[in-house]
Specification:
With 330 residues, this protein is an alpha/beta fold. It is 58% helix and 9% strand. The strands form two sheets. A five-stranded parallel sheet has the order 4-5-6-3-7, sandwiched between helices. It has a two-stranded antiparallel ribbon with strand order 1-2. Bound molecules: zinc ion.
């Protein structure tokens, strides 16, 4: 997945801060302990000296080189052991004076063997996700706190559907979808009235799929379309803030509450190009909406509707407005 340039800069800044922080903390620990335990400071000086001596010996060469290096190495190890001993006797962890990097693999440089470290790639993903996502609700929404007890267990409506049973199936489908998510997963259309848990399950899917390392963007539709519109009218040549490509390229795009935004010719065109583009590229999308077919057709036209109806798997939500029930029942 390609990211806007600013994400690379931001990710590097975060790594620089992590690295500086780890080094500052280690320096602070050294300053504190050296004044209390002078032997430690001497050990540290001796350790640097053996390192320097090894480098000088290697440069000078000579027939005894291997032996000299071996001796210095042993001396170095002995000094390190003594340092660990002193620290542990004083009640500190033996690596107390060493930098504790967030990523021990690249020591927070973001580079391993001249390639981007995994932590750098993860940061990029997270930044892209945050930039376009509204993650304000994600912390509370998990599959395991989705409460089926709020859904009636008596048959309702024309088809005598029992909401609790129907929603147990929806929940289990979503759990399965998230657990086995891949770029070959199908796109979903979550339909049903307000307060039936569509956002809760969308965010639960987002949480699980993100945890597996996929680039997920979750966004309410009004937020996405606002951003695309703002970008359209203030496009900078640098290619920064390229929401269109973030929304197009992420592994899973979740558009919540389609229909709640103010639709214009621009938003309809932008939405069509996203929906169609992602279908063509074979990237899964999840869209949720409170509106029925008739209203969606009125707002977005036949082109979008036929894509949604033909290429998305519909998941119907049943029940009564949970938010209202929760409020009434305390
Ligand atoms: Zn790393």
């Amino acid at each position: 997945m390609a990211y806007p340039k600013e994400f690379y800069q931001k990710a590097q800044e975060i790594l620089d801060q992590r690295r500086a922080k780890a080094q500052n903390i280690a320096a602070q620990h050294r300053a504190e302990l050296y004044s209390a335990m002078p032997e430690l400071e001497k050990l540290e000086r001796d350790l640097s000296a053996t390192g320097l001596a090894a480098a000088q010996a290697a440069l000078a060469g000579g027939p005894q080189l291997d032996k000299v290096i071996e001796n210095l190495k042993n001396k170095n190890l002995a000094l390190q052991r003594r340092r660990e001993e002193l620290l542990q006797q004083a009640g500190f962890p033996k690596d107390f004076l060493q930098e504790r990097y967030t990523c021990p693999i690249c020591q927070d440089t973001g580079v391993v063997e001249q390639r981007p470290c995994q932590c750098f790639t993860e940061l990029l993903r997270k930044l892209a996700y945050e930039k376009l996502s509204d993650t304000s609700g994600i912390d509370g929404c998990r599959f395991d706190n989705f409460q089926l007890r709020y859904y009636p267990d008596t048959p309702t409506g024309r088809f005598n559907i029992i909401p609790r049973q129907a929603m147990a199936k929806v929940l289990s489908f979503c759990q399965n979808y998230a657990a086995h998510f891949s770029l070959a997963s199908e796109s979903l259309l979550l339909c049903g009235g307000t307060g039936l848990g569509k956002t809760h399950l969308s965010l639960s899917i987002a949480y699980e799929v993100t945890k597996q390392g996929f680039g997920v963007v979750y966004t309410p539709s009004h937020r996405l379309l606002d951003k695309l519109q703002t970008q359209q009218f203030s496009r900078r040549e640098t290619g920064d803030d390229d929401y269109q490509s973030v929304a197009m390229d992420c592994d899973l795009l979740i558009i919540d509450d389609l229909g709640a935004e103010f639709s214009t010719n621009f938003t309809v065109a932008a939405l069509y190009s996203l929906i169609n583009g992602r279908l063509n590229e074979g990237r899964p999308t999840i869209i949720s909406t409170n509106y029925d077919e008739t209203i969606l057709r009125e707002r977005y036209g036949d082109r979008i509707l036929s894509r949604l109806l033909c290429a998305y798997r519909p998941l119907q939500f049943y029940g009564e407005d949970i938010r209202m029930l929760k409020r009434l029942n305390g």
